[in-house]
Amino acid sequence: xxxxxxxxxxxxxxxxxxxxxxxxxxxxxxxxxxxxxxxxxxxxxxxxxxxxxxxxxxxxxxxxxxxxxxxxxxxxxxxxxxxxxxxxxxxxxxxxxxxxxxxxxxxxxxxxxxxxxxxxxxxxxxxxxxxxxxxxxxxxxxxxxxxxxxxxxxxxxxxxxxxxxxxxxxxxxxxxxxxxxxxxxxxxxxxxxxxxxxxxxxxxxxxxxxxxxxxxxxxxxxxxxxxxxxxxxxxxxxxxxxxxxxxxxxxxxxxxxxxxxxxxxxxxxxxxxxxxxxxxxxxxxxxxxxxx
Length: 292
Fold this sequence. Notes:
Layout: E1 4-9, H1 12-24, H2 31-43, E2 54-60, E3 63-70, E4 75-78, H3 83-95, E5 102-106, H4 107-121, E6 125-136, E7 149-152, H5 158-171, E8 192-197, E9 203-209, E10 216-223, H6 233-247, E11 252-257, H7 262-270, E12 273-284
Parallel strand pairs: 4-5, 10-11
Antiparallel strand pairs: 1-2, 2-3, 3-4, 5-12, 6-11, 6-12, 7-8, 8-9, 9-10
Helix pairs in contact: 1-2, 3-4
């Protein structure tokens, strides 16, 4: 076997048996793979659409050094890679006839893979998403605390949650197409939601969070309607969701922000979230050589 070798499989149990400890070793940095793989493990291979999901790990000296998955959408998510490792993966996927529609990873890794994919396929790459990953340090609730209280969203709140998730999606450039039928397959369906209510009991802000996996919980999404912003509601509900995550046993509580939004970045840093990495998403054009 070569000093470093990529091992690919379509069996999630086989993949997790070898790469699970590696992914759990850095739960904050690997937060998206941890939640996506948990959904695939519990809901089945079609949890993100019909089609084949490919998993891969890079081994050296019997140790896993990196990992990736390619969902049915043909989009690849990578853990950090060197430029050489990104190139060997792009070459391997091309050689196996595994087309890729895009990539998401930390900025340097995503850029290295996008450039490698261009070299191997002739496809063009366009950056279309940017995210700044934050990890909780000491939690510092903002003062003054707005009036009102936190409340877990229940079944009777489902329409409100769907409506606000649609509004959040529109704010961040996603398609606001959720309804009761599409909800179970959406990226929000596995989240737990909390409202901040004003003293009259009217919800004024909302925060979601993932279930605990690998010692990590991700806060996502956080949404306040535009006409209610600037009153401290988002900070208050984020603090409450964060406290709940810590009580549940999370050692790593994380969230993503838009690096171009100074207001949200400043808010989360004030309450104790510290930036640890920038992520980028690229989408690829389809070239004749990878059209299979």
